[in-house]
Amino acid sequence: MPSTFxxxxxxxPPVWTTDTNLVRFSLLDTLYFPMRAEIRVANNNNTNxxxxxxxxxxxxxxxxxxxxxxxxxxxxxIEPVWDDDYGxxxxxxxxxxLNELLRRTNDNNYTGFTARSxxxxxxxxxxxxxxxxxxxxxxxxxxxxxxxxxxQLDVNFDGSGKNSLRCIYELAAEDPWDDPT
Length: 181
Known about the structure:
This protein is 15% helix and 31% strand. The protein is built from 3 helices and 9 strands.
């Protein structure tokens, strides 16, 4: 089954509408950066342009049998262009919600944590808009296997100049994959 491109309404949860004018898409997944989708949709007679707006939620479903989501993010760019094969098209760029953590400098002081996962969860909560990045799903957000001694995870990012995503990366890199005891 072919992949589908959908745009979401502003409702919570969003109502998804499949765009049948999908020409092509590509996903760019670079280590240490948010995933980006570049999407091209046909825009005959400029009828499709009003369907999209900046920061609108979009997703790409891998196939309609499993409904596996390949990409979920927000539109950051909409560009009407001419394509020799399809005529008027829209080039849409969207980035996933990790973009919020990449663009925000962490200037907080954190104390009292005994698990790296709890500290990382707090950073995500502090620097993402409410509900954009889920922290409650144990399949996607694992609990640290080791409890740290008191005050070992006290960290002050104020003045570090690091974005929140970099802080999370550094904390996660030091977290063991399993309990060594």
